[in-house]
Amino acid sequence: MSLKIIWFAIPIITVLIGLLVSLDGKRLTRHIQVAQDLIAKGVAEPEAMQHSGCNHWDRPFMVRIWKAYPKLPNGY
To answer: Taking the CB of the first residue and of the last residue of the chain, which one, N or C, has fewer CB atoms within 10 A?
Structure first.
């Protein structure tokens, strides 16, 4: 019985972890696009990275998924 549960649970857990990583990557890509837009508008790079929330991804993945993701600046 327990072997059947393990064979059922492992793929589900793997899919959930894959979804978390995929969503995290999409959010990072969007925040980097916003930072690039801010840099193109003349904002200094460190300020643009901080204002767009890119500094959130400096933390390890396991710490980052439990924290709230930063909001994008108004207009994005």
So the answer is: N
